[in-house]
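Repro:
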Amino acid sequence: MPNFRLSRRAVLRGAGSIAIALPWLEIMRPERRAQAAVAGKPANHFLAVYQPGGTVRNYNGADRWAPTGTETNFTLSPILKPLEPIRNKLLIVDGPDMKSAIGEQHQAGIIAWLTGSVQAPNFGYATGPSIDQVIAKRLFSNQKKKSIQIAIRWATGKSHGSLHPINCANFDADNNSPIGPLVDPQQIWKDLFGSVSGGTGDAKAAAALKRQQSILDFVDKRYDALSQRLGAADKLRLQEHLSKIRDLEKSLTSIPSTSSVCKQVPNVSTSDYNPHPAYSDNGSVVDASTDKAIPKVGKFMIDMMVMAFACNLAPVGTLQWSDTEAKHTFPWLSLPSNQHHHFYQHDGGFQPVQCEQIATWYSQQHLYLLQQLDAVTIGDHTLLDETVVFFGSELQEPATHKKNNMPFMLAGGGGLNTGTTGRWIKKTGESHNNLLVSILNMFGDTRTSFGTKDYSTGVMTGIV
């Protein structure tokens, strides 16, 4: 056993095409990278998280998003207050201008967020790649799956469920072509964790049913053989890892397929969720009955993204909570079932109280994500410590659609200088393109410009 070693990318293979990536184990130590939080060490994972409609910058003369105090001794605002338990791993980047967001007011914002590029003429897509795809291609070229894009309530209004400049955040590193997210939890599960191959007709259906009962049934013998060669600590890590997969499976069984949701009857479980509901341009058609499941489905999406990172299935991801229209309801917040987020932003006149309530709920979800990343132990640090999480939106505040004084936030430890997190830095007026350059630098990319050159002047100081 002393000579037995596993690759960091080892998997537990079973029947058909089943393959479960393993968590980090002590027996993989020779291949483990140095702790990412140490200054100068590149990050291992990048996650972009989008929430729609900016935030509430001005209500009764007060900024409801920005902290108060000093750079290192600050009080979180009402909107960011839920993040207090993990504030030491936050870097609040307050006030950059998204100068490259030139084009249609919402479309240009979501396009520029990760690309730093202006919108193509005639309401086109991006004129440059997004940083997530640049990171995935250049720094993880040997990874089979380089990135995962998922969304929870997406393409809600004018785009009617289709990829459109109003909802697209990711663009290919080679040709700037748009990349749409996966929105169906079951499809995402199958995409990440494989499926049973072979068989037709009833045999294939039976195999699929068996897999739904538990993917772990297909790897039991190989698990037993591997377990006998592991030390006590590794056995415990592996068992916890497989238990997490089992929990995810159980969560999935409570989320019916699209067809079963479409046949929904009154008083069904609130776990019912339709990933492809019908929407209208003006938001007059809503799917409030399945909107109730957004919190549960969102948690499930987060769990799968964290699992994908922990299992090394992909090093880069994007999580969109919605698109720029966000024409879905928030019944779990006791907001009217016939009014959508865009209504509170400006369709019904700017309503800061409701917008703050929604933004605060998003902060609660951000906390859950960061805590889940921080709960995955990799040797002497956590998964969050080797990850850069970038939170953003397409505009500053919905009342004006302005792109200055943007509310950005980074979290994690990967690639950041020691002592960088746990801070609130003000970058009023500086181009957000410089922030994108700094994020790329965290992954060992030494470029000094990114996106539309007129708006990129170098790295944003105080980050890397």
